[in-house]
Design brief:
about 200 residues; globular
Length: about 200
């Protein structure tokens, strides 16, 4: 028998990716609770601000897409933690060469059911590995090794591309291992146990 609560959470997570990438901002806003927060490499802000920056970026030609894979959900009553395998794909010109960067990881979502509706309270991606490739395989791209080394292994190529197009990138996002991801797991356990905030 299907768990209807988990099905509702899965639909919410899938709607996030579809509506955000399609630029369906009105519906995208409905996946969040009013105090929702998004933590991305380039934006750590309340959901409303993330939506505004995403919309303005898309209007300027910023090209970021998401693809989702398997999901696991831990639920305690009206609270849940969902982890979803994902890839972030971004296309941009880096030093005169059109490139694609693909970053593989997980969305780690703090969710709560309020007034009969599940919504996101916080999303924290976990960045596991990435790569950067010229769209034209014959093109030659020389990366700045010093700049590349400033970023964690799990998203260094994504960060490199984002910095090259003028984004301000946070350098302490959680990866596959380490203190940042362990602290995230600890916050998830506390959320399921009833902590006031994620």
């Amino acid at each position: 028998m299907y768990d209807q609560e988990k099905l509702a959470i899965r639909e919410l997570v899938e709607n996030w990716a579809l509506w955000r990438d399609a630029g369906d901002w009105e519906r995208f806003a409905t996946v969040w609770h009013e105090d929702g927060r998004m933590n991305a490499t380039w934006c750590q802000a309340p959901a409303a601000e993330f939506i505004r920056q995403s919309r303005e970026g898309m209007e300027r030609g910023v090209n970021i897409l998401h693809f989702l894979g398997g999901m696991t959900i831990d639920r305690e009553g009206d609270r849940a933690i969902a982890q979803t395998k994902m890839t972030i794909s971004q296309r941009a010109v880096v030093d005169g060469v059109l490139c694609d960067v693909v970053c593989t990881g997980r969305f780690y979502d703090f969710l709560e059911k309020r007034g009969g509706r599940w919504g996101m309270v916080e999303r924290q991606p976990i960045y596991e590995k990435d790569r950067l490739d010229p769209v034209d395989p014959a093109a030659r791209l020389e990366l700045d090794a010093d700049l590349l080394s400033r970023f964690p292994e799990g998203y260094r190529h994504l960060a490199y591309l984002q910095v090259k197009i003028g984004m301000d990138v946070k350098t302490t996002m959680p990866g596959l291992r380490g203190s940042e991801v362990q602290a995230l797991y600890d916050r998830g356990k506390a959320w399921l146990a009833g902590s006031a905030r994620p």
